[in-house]
Amino acid sequence: MKPNIHPEYGPVVFQDRSTGTRFLTRSTATSEDTVTWEDGATYPLIVVDITADSHPFWTGNQRVLDSEGRVEKFRRRYGDRAR
Asked: How far apart are CA 40 and CA 34, in angstroms?
């Protein structure tokens, strides 16, 4: 690797905005906000909208956005055009 071209890679804390869950990991992302972790050290805090803790796929709380099927929607809009 070339020296002095890569961003700093260090420990950061990510926090889920909707659930408040925090986890410590390593990243190149930085933040001015800081938080004191369980080990007593202070780390940068990055707040994100969705993590595995709140994502519908992982929580099983998927919402049905389209209650009709696509074929039925097409047939209702354009009719049944049999040739």
From this structure: 12
- Nearest one of 76, 78, 13 to 48, comparing CA atoms: 13
CB 9 within 8 A of CB 26: yes
Residue that has been written with the tokens 């410590």 in this structure = 24
pTM value?
0.64
Residue type, 53: D
| Residue count of the chain | 83
Tokens of 48: 């994100």
How many alpha carbons fall within 13 Å on the CB side of residue 22? Answer: 14
In tens, the pLDDT along 2-46 reads: 888 989 899 999 999 888 899 999 999 999 999 999 999 999 999
Distance (Å, whole) CA 72 – CA 78:
10
